[in-house]
Amino acid sequence: MNILLFKLTLMPSVMALITLAIRRWGNKIGGLIGSMPWIAGPILLFFILEQGKEFGIRSIQGVMTGILALIAFCFSYSAFSRRWSWLPALLLAYGAYTVTALIFYYLRLDLYLSYALVIGTILVALWVFPKPSTEPFRVRRLPFDIPIRMVITTLFVLVITGLAHVLGPNWSGILTPFPIQTSILAIFSHSLQGSNAAITALRGLVMGLLGFTTFLFLQAFLLPEFSVAVSFGLAFIVNILINLIASRIW
User: What pLDDT, on a 0 to 100 scale, did the predictor assign at position 210?
Assistant: First the structure.
């Protein structure tokens, strides 16, 4: 199949399914499901198909930095959403994301230390994450919210994979977990259902980053030994198991 056609069919389908999962099982489980590597996995796959397996493996170190920045985004947006509407909360959270990404990019931590730091940061974030109030969620939907989410997600994937050869593996990896899907989740939850819904969804997403991070970390060791299908399949099983355990603990 043509890679461009693959992008144009896979990515909107993934975004639509995540949105339907949130509607079916609620914001917490929806956030947990949304944290699975539905976007980062295909982006890594496209890196490998277009730039080669070595490029994909080298991008994983940058992905760890991107995940730290993503945690900063989720925590910041949740905190700011209590006081402000979605736009100022989003801009401030993007600021937190950018500062975090730049700091850890220049620190140049190795893969093992980065992975340990990400896991530790996730656990701390879950401990201190803003708590939603007891106020019930509003239930409101835009008539075309699913197509809007599908288009935005697809455009992001096209841009980041299209610029990979210019950005190089490190910055391509850093931008792989860029909170485009997370932003969509936060904005729609916040604007349609209120701050509580956004906080609940983003906390579920941070919880799911335990498995998401491990999925990507394992690729650094699986891809050199196995095919892409086997590497992704084995790591995806591990991701699911971690998410199931995390959902029971938290």
Answer: 93
